[in-house]
Amino acid sequence: MPGVPQRLDLREEHLNRTILLLAWPAIVENLLHSLVYFADTLVAGWLRDERALAASMVAGTLMFFASSPFAALAMAAASLVSRHWGEGDVERARRCAGQSMALAFLFALGVMAAGWPLAGWAMRALGAEPGVAGLGALYFRIVLLSGLLGLPLMIANGILRGAGDSRTPMLITLVMNLLNVIANIVLAFGWGPIPALGLAGIAWGTVIARTTGGLLALAVLARGRHSVHLPLRSLVTLERPTLARVWRLSAPAMAERVLHSGSHVIFIGIVGLLGTTALAANNIGVHVESLAFMPGFGLSVAVATVVGQAVGA
Q1: Coil, strand or helix: which one is 9?
Q2: Are the C-beta atoms of 41 and 284 separated by less than 8 Å?
Q3: Which residue from 124, 140, 196, 303 puts its CA 20 to 30 A from 295's CA?
């Protein structure tokens, strides 16, 4: 039944097994998330144009910065949901989840509204050459269209993990990857009646993948068979006390994430001063390097869920 809490096995003798069962899907999910952007970089490389690689690097950096508040909100949502799920208080878990998603949609609208007009200026501020800045702004604006569902997807996955379900986010991300790779190749190089769109095609492929992922996550929450049941009305109804609680928990984490991603933006600005070739090479290196961080991220997700449910219990 929707909303029946299936809590984790928190007995000390089974704790390692519980953490492992939560961690391995989260590790795979994080790897798959990295591969979404890795696939963009790979296909951009096949275009044999260093400007495309450099443009996707700068645009990807801006998307990373824009998504940092959502990563923090996902942490807050997972923390609150896991605690109430551990308590067995399904209704409070649902309300915290609903207010987190409502806040995520409001933030997504704000990011899209601010990002569209500032895209060209941001590219130039990061030191991109004129040709790269134009391509990067185009790529960024197209990918930004997926923001309404693609950015709240992070919070939806956090809610699922808070309730102890780390496999569903992994499966959603797997579907996103498959769609992303197929759409990127078809739209970048053309197929049959579909014209070759180059870097813009890669961006549209990412939009298709991220939007599909967001829709799948919302469908899982709306069904709520083994996790938090989140009907549509809970996404459009604002409850001030619960919303304030979500905000108090997420605001410090948002500041931390913005500072962290801001340092990366500054770094890319310095690399941009070295020219297009340096930006293109850095794009490849950063995406390969990011794969090494995924086991740590996966374990952090598992431990956060276990601690939250244990506190609640």
Answers
A1: coil
A2: yes
A3: 140
CA distance 4 to 12: 24
CA distance 236 to 137: 32
pLDDT digits (tens, 9 = 90+) for 46-97: 888 888 878 887 888 888 888 888 988 998 898 899 888 888 888 888 889 9
Contact 38, 72 (CB under 8 A): no
Write down how long the chain is. 313
User: What sign has the CA pseudo-torsion 291, 295, 300, 305?
Assistant: positive
Answer whether 164's CB lies under 8 Å from 309's CB.
Answer: yes
What is the token pair recorded at 21?
């069962």
pLDDT tops 60 at residue 2: no
Q: Can you say whether residue 227 is alpha, beta or left, with left for phi > 0 and alpha for psi between -120 and 50 degrees?
A: beta
pLDDT digits (tens, 9 = 90+) for 88-142: 888 888 889 999 999 999 999 999 999 999 988 988 888 778 888 888 899 999 9
Q: What is the mean pLDDT of the chain?
A: 84
What pLDDT score was predicted for residue 214? 93
* Cβ pair 221, 229 in contact under 8 A: yes
Query: From CA 84, how far away is CA 82, in angstroms rounded?
Result: 6
Residue with tokens 């208080």: 89
